[in-house]
Amino acid sequence: MDHVSENHLEEFAAACRRVAAFGLVRCSSGNLSWRVKEYMLITATRSWMGELTGEQIAVCRIPDGTVLNEKRPSAESGFHFGILRERSDVNVVLHFQTPFATAVACRGREQKNFFVIPEIPYYIGPIAVVPYLNPGSTDLARGVIEAMKGHDLVILKNHGLVTAGKNFNDVIQKASFFELACEIILRGGDHIQFLSEDAVAYLRKKY
Fold first, then answer.
1. Is residue 25 a contact partner of residue 94, using CB atoms and an 8 Å limit?
2. Residue 122 to residue 115: CA distance in whole angstroms
3. Tell me: the pLDDT tens digits for 138-194?
4. Helices (H), the chain
5. Which helix (H) or strand (E) holds 59?
6. Which of 58, 125, 143, 183 is the S-S candidate for 130 at Cβ 3.0 to 4.6 Å?
7. CA–CA separation, 139 vs 125, rounded Å?
8. pLDDT tens across 17-73, in order?
9. Is pLDDT of 14 > 70?
10. How far is the CA of 174 from the CAs of 4, 24, 133, in angstroms?
11. Which residues pair with 31 in a beta bridge?
12. Interior CA angle at 2 toward 52 and 20, to 5°?
């Protein structure tokens, strides 16, 4: 662990507490990972992100998944490893469960358009959907990894959300903006006006 210092652990723990402070997770729900060179820091299983300390962080090698500090990583570590391996542009992966976005994930009717505010096409882009698969399963990990190859945010049906980005602020912002969009959609109902295709294309090009 030559490249993972106490400062890295402290920075990661502080980021986890920020995720919780933004209301993106509750109690032991959700998990966060961070690329540090060839290593991945990830929340330990059953840890509460709002109270996370350095003692609740698993340090792993990204290429082979070896755990280096005897901490048990989150049950969802499979898709964290996979996303970091597949996406060289990604350094942070967040699995979160906000009320409105999770409500959308639990709806029987699939929501396909989330472009209600400029921030969604600008910062996130199209949203992928993965059907319900058992939490922590290999099937779920495969589904998320495949979906995240071409998307920055994926809905896990009846489960929650996963987003990825270049740093902690990036994933917190994406999760927060997506939660806002889902709240607008659910509160607005049939009265919502979505952005036009031209507006979406302009915003995607600007990004």
1. no
2. 9
3. 999 999 999 999 999 999 999 999 999 999 999 999 999 999 999 999 999 888 999
4. 6-21, 77-86, 99-105, 119, 138-148, 168-188, 197-206
5. strand 57-61
6. 143
7. 25
8. 999 999 999 999 999 999 999 999 999 999 999 999 999 999 999 999 999 999 999
9. yes
10. 26, 11, 24
11. 95
12. 15
120-138 pLDDT tens trace: 999 999 999 999 999 999 9
Cα–Cα dist 93/107, whole Å? 24
Q: Which two tokens stand for residue 42?
A: 């990830």
Q: What are the tokens at 102?
A: 């999770």
Instruction: Give the pair of three-digit tokens for residue 78.
Output: 């499979």
Task: List, in sequence order, every residue forming a beta bridge with 73; answer none if it has no partner.
Answer: 44
User: By the 8 A CB rule, do 58 and 71 touch?
Assistant: yes
- 148, HSE (Cβ side, Cα atoms, 13 Å): 32
pLDDT computed for residue 2 by the predictor: 64
φ and ψ at residue 22, rounded to 5 degrees: -80, 0
How large is the angle between the packed helices 138-148 and 77-86, nearest 10 degrees?
A: 30
Q: Determine which helix (DSSP H) or strand (DSSP E) holds 130, and give its type and residue range.
A: strand 128-130
Gyration radius (Cα) of the chain, Å: 17
Q: Which domains does the chain have, with CATH numbers?
A: 6-206 (3.40.225.10)
Using DSSP bridges, classify how beta strands 160-165 and 128-130 pair: parallel, antiparallel or unpaired. Answer: unpaired
